[in-house]
């Protein structure tokens, strides 16, 4: 079985060097970091993007590749609608084939409870002019023929997109570099530099870059970086396993899911597969601290999380991972430059078997690859998009909770506006950092 292709053996496409001074430093080379840097540069600011490993080598290239409006939390949905438009714009500007396709997203109902949930979400779609439709059993069977057992109904948004994430985010990075963003791969940000009570730059393994503004888009590493500066966020990271089939006949052009399996058509003729709602959480110090805040999520999805007691060495939340370090010593980000968890072998086989059972007419379903990634999640399953009051000059975009690839360009555009002192164009109250410290209850939105 072929493991995911990104590794430190991949030659860096962006080696710097970076200047000693910039208007903004962005930490993290995933979809949010890359698009934030791009939109900041388009505002005329000088931008340095620091990536400890390789651009998009972690979850931004390991996800399902869905660009999904359907089923979004209602507070995320306005940004997601914008993000869909941005994906089309940026793909054209990048000039590279990223597999961007309007294939649609469909959810398959397995009973009246699913149909009720679909119907309850429809007003969100109507409020934003989406083409989402509720389908009966016959309409669902016509949309995705050969599905066994037949679904009792479905929900479909034909305008939803898909892309190949391992192509898409590097293509956006090339676009950003052409427009003047300085990208340094293989360069870890160790600590923030501070002066006069605010951020003054970033101290990296290659030296200091002075900047009055820093954006942290570090994905699964964000909590560790913030804790070293005295800021705690209840962010956890869970392992999600993905498999990819060999080329197969087309059963559906986009992405689809029921309660057992999620799949989407790929540009190479195969399907990307994942079992529904299952992920692995290794219990480390941050997990113990944050777990009480996750009680509402665990009650809503009691079988979705499998707890692992022994975190792998050098994991962001491993027991042996340092929580503090000096700027002149090796940081945890250098010790593990690419977070590359082994896939859950049982999940790989379950995904293959469930897909084969769902479409028996396909015959033998053979896999060509399997990989895993670490999803940075929050207790209410929506991100933090906010300035950090405790560290003036720092903005945070993290905790996208497995929804980050599709919504990434929209979040990047919003973060760039915040840093530039502009109106973000959306209500960001739900995404404020202070919701975890101001006594607000944990609220799970009506996402599907």
Can you put this structure into words, describing what you see?
By secondary structure, the protein is α/β, with parallel strands linked by helices. It contains twelve helices and 21 strands.
Per DSSP E runs of 2 or more residues, the count of β-strands stands at 21
Q: Indicate the radius of gyration in whole angstroms.
A: 21 Å
Form type: globular
Name the average pLDDT: 94
| Low-pLDDT sequence parts | none
Tell me the major beta sheet. 8 strands, mixed
Distance between the termini: 32 Å
Tally of individual helices = 12
Strand order of the largest sheet: 5-6-4-14-15-16-13-19
Protein structure class: alpha/beta
Query: Helicity, in percent?
Result: 25-40%
Tell me the β content: 15-25%
């Amino acid at each position: 079985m072929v493991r995911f292709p990104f590794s430190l053996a991949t030659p860096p496409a962006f080696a710097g060097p970076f200047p000693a001074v910039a208007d903004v430093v962005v930490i993290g080379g995933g979809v949010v970091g890359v698009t934030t840097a791009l939109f900041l540069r388009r505002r005329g600011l000088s931008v340095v993007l620091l990536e400890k490993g390789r651009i998009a080598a972690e979850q931004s290239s390991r996800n399902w590749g869905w660009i999904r409006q359907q089923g979004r939390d209602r507070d995320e949905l306005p940004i997601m609608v914008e993000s869909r438009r941005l994906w089309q714009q940026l793909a054209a500007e990048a000039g590279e084939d990223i597999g961007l396709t309007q294939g649609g997203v469909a959810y398959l109902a397995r009973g009246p409870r699913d149909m009720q949930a679909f119907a309850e979400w429809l007003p969100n779609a109507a409020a934003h002019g989406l083409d989402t439709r509720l389908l009966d059993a016959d309409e669902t069977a016509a949309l995705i023929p050969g599905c066994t057992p037949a679904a009792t109904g479905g929900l479909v948004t034909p305008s939803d997109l898909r892309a190949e994430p391992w192509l898409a985010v590097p293509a956006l990075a090339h676009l950003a570099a052409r427009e003047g963003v300085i990208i340094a791969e293989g360069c870890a940000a160790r600590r923030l530099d501070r002066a006069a009570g605010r951020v003054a730059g970033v101290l990296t393994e290659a030296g200091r870059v002075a900047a009055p503004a820093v954006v942290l888009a570090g994905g699964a590493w964000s909590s560790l970086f913030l804790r070293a500066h005295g800021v705690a966020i209840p962010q956890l990271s869970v392992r999600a396993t993905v498999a990819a089939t060999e080329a197969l006949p087309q059963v559906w052009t986009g992405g689809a899911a029921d309660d057992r399996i999620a799949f989407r058509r790929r540009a190479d003729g195969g399907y990307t597969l994942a079992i529904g709602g299952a992920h692995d959480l290794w219990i480390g110090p941050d997990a113990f601290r944050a777990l009480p805040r996750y009680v509402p999520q665990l009650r809503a999805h009691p079988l979705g999380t499998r707890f692992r007691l022994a975190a792998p060495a050098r994991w962001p939340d491993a027991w042996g991972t340092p929580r503090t370090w000096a700027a002149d010593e090796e940081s945890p980000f250098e010790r593990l430059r690419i977070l590359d968890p082994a896939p859950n072998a049982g999940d790989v086989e379950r995904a293959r078997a469930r897909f084969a059972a769902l479409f028996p007419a396909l015959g033998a379903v053979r896999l060509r690859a399997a990989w895993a990634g670490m999803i940075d999640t929050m207790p209410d399953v929506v991100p933090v998009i906010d300035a950090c009051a405790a560290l003036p000059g720092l903005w945070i975009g993290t905790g996208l909770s497995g929804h980050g690839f599709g919504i990434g360009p929209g979040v990047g555009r919003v973060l760039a506006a915040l840093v530039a002192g502009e109106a973000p164009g959306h209500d960001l109250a739900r995404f404020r950092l202070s919701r975890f410290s101001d006594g607000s209850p944990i609220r799970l939105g009506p996402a599907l």
